[in-house]
Design a protein that fits this description.
Blueprint lengths: L4 E3 L4 H7 L7 E4 L5 H6 L7 E4 L10 E4 L2 E5 L4 H6 L1 H6 L1 H7 L5 H6 L2 H7 L6 H7 L3 E6 L2 E6 L4 E3 L2 E2 L6 E8 L4 E9 L7 E12 L2 E10 L6 E2 L1 H7 L6 H14 L10 H22 L4
Parallel strand pairs: 1-3, 2-3
Antiparallel strand pairs: 4-5, 5-10, 6-7, 6-10, 8-9, 11-12, 12-13, 13-14
Helix pairs in contact: 9-10, 10-11
């Protein structure tokens, strides 16, 4: 690796002030699980890294507040996975984290880094999008709130400015919702997925009143499938409704081919997995 400068600010606001909006070689580093690999491979050659280690206590808390579960951006994924509060209020998130990469990565990788990396194969973004989550962003102009659905701009691209940092994730708490995330991997269960599908349902008795369906890995960024959600609304989640939703999802996506599968293969995966994810959400129920 080439030499670089290392800065160690004491707050997120100070860290943001040390970033350069015009210089892509200046980057923040938290867990470093992705950035270090890029540096070792020579894909990224920084001139300065802004270490966030010294501000972990400021932005590594989990709490339920004002109708939302709030998770600091520097909270390690393993901490979220083991949190009794997360398991009680958002069991689908706990379940998703159990096969997110491996425990060594989860012990180091942070919530903010997971989102800011914008790899379309990540597991949490589709679930968070379906749940209507938002992030608080810190920058030189102050704080702003941004829906997770608007965070991802493309393949490994976000809508964040280079001198902005994610400070907190907020997931609205609605106990009547039922949620599930399923992924299809071509190798081990914790491998990068060929497809990820998140489903969040609101039910009125046996009827699905509202449905959010989000796919990832098959597309260049996590994508809301409006037609699939519309096909589920007003149904009881019966086999015919699930087939309609799966067909609508397969017609709606623009799948990308990669090492995990061809575009045609991923389209058929979507057709099957949307129904499976709906069944899983209906079986899971709401918060524990």
């Amino acid at each position: 690796m080439t030499p670089f400068e290392l800065a160690e600010p004491r707050s997120l606001r100070e860290a943001a002030s040390l970033l350069d909006a015009d210089d892509p070689s200046v980057r923040p580093i938290a867990g470093g699980t992705a950035l270090m690999l890029m540096m070792k491979a020579g894909v990224f050659k920084p001139t300065r890294l802004i270490s966030l280690r010294a501000v972990e206590s400021e932005a590594a808390r989990i709490r339920a507040d004002d109708g939302a579960l709030r998770i600091g951006a520097l909270t390690p994924l393993a901490t979220v996975e083991r949190s009794a509060e997360v398991r009680r209020l958002l069991p689908a998130m706990t379940q998703t984290l159990r096969t997110l990469s491996n425990v060594r990565v989860r012990n180091v990788a942070t919530v903010g880094g997971h989102l800011a990396h914008a790899d379309p194969h990540m597991d949490l973004p589709p679930l968070l999008m379906a749940l209507g989550a938002t992030v608080t962003v810190v920058g030189p102009s102050g704080d702003r709130s941004l829906p997770v659905a608007e965070l991802f701009a493309g393949y490994f691209e976000t809508s964040l400015a280079r001198n902005e940092l994610i400070a907190e994730l907020a997931v609205p708490l609605q106990p009547q919702r039922r949620a599930a995330y399923l992924k299809c991997t071509t190798r081990s269960a914790d491998d990068w997925p060929a497809l990820g599908v998140a489903v969040v349902l609101e039910t009125a008795g046996p009827t699905i009143a509202e449905a959010q369906v989000v796919v990832s890995a098959a597309t260049e960024r996590p994508t809301l499938l409006a037609a699939a959600g519309a096909a589920l609304r007003g149904s009881r989640g019966d086999d015919a409704a699930l087939r309609r939703a799966g067909d609508a999802a397969a017609d709606e996506i623009s799948p990308m081919a990669d090492a995990h599968g061809s575009a045609a293969y991923k389209r058929e995966l979507v057709r099957v997995y949307v129904g499976r994810a709906v069944r899983a959400a209906l079986a899971a129920g709401g918060a524990e």
